[in-house]
């Protein structure tokens, strides 16, 4: 093989190698872009799932708080009713006591 033919074949091989490298780099760039896009999709899906989970937990907490609030209100109502009942029961005693003190004061005053 003549020297010019060898040089031509070397140049062809170099050109072919350059094309292969360029294609590989292009392929790599494309795959990297696809991987970044997929990573962004996965991140977005994870954020949506996390938001949904947070909303579910928040709603459950609200329901729990409302249930506890109702329990507290019911207990407070029961306590109020018990206090009112006790106060009504003592009203007669308080009136009797007041009348007795008044009568004693009147008797002391009239007896002087």
TrEMBL record:
Gene3D superfamilies: 1.20.5.2950. InterPro entries: ATP_synth_B-like_membr_sf, ATPase_A1A0-cplx_hsu. SUPFAM superfamilies: F1F0 ATP synthase subunit B, membrane domain. Residues 17-28 have a biased composition (Acidic residues). It comes from the Archaea. Residues 17-37 are annotated as: Disordered. Transmembrane segments: none annotated. This is ATP synthase archaeal subunit H. It comes from Halorubrum tibetense. The gene is ahaH.
């Amino acid at each position: 093989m003549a020297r010019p033919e060898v040089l031509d074949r070397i140049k062809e091989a170099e050109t072919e190698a350059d094309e292969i490298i360029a294609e590989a780099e292009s392929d790599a760039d494309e795959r990297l872009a696809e991987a970044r896009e997929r990573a962004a999709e996965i991140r977005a899906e994870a954020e949506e799932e996390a938001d949904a989970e947070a909303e579910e937990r928040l709603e459950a907490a609200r329901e729990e708080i409302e249930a506890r609030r109702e329990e507290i209100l019911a207990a407070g109502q029961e306590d109020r009713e018990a206090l009112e009942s006790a106060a009504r029961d003592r009203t007669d005693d308080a009136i009797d006591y007041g009348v007795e003190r008044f009568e004693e004061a009147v008797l002391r005053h009239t007896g002087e």
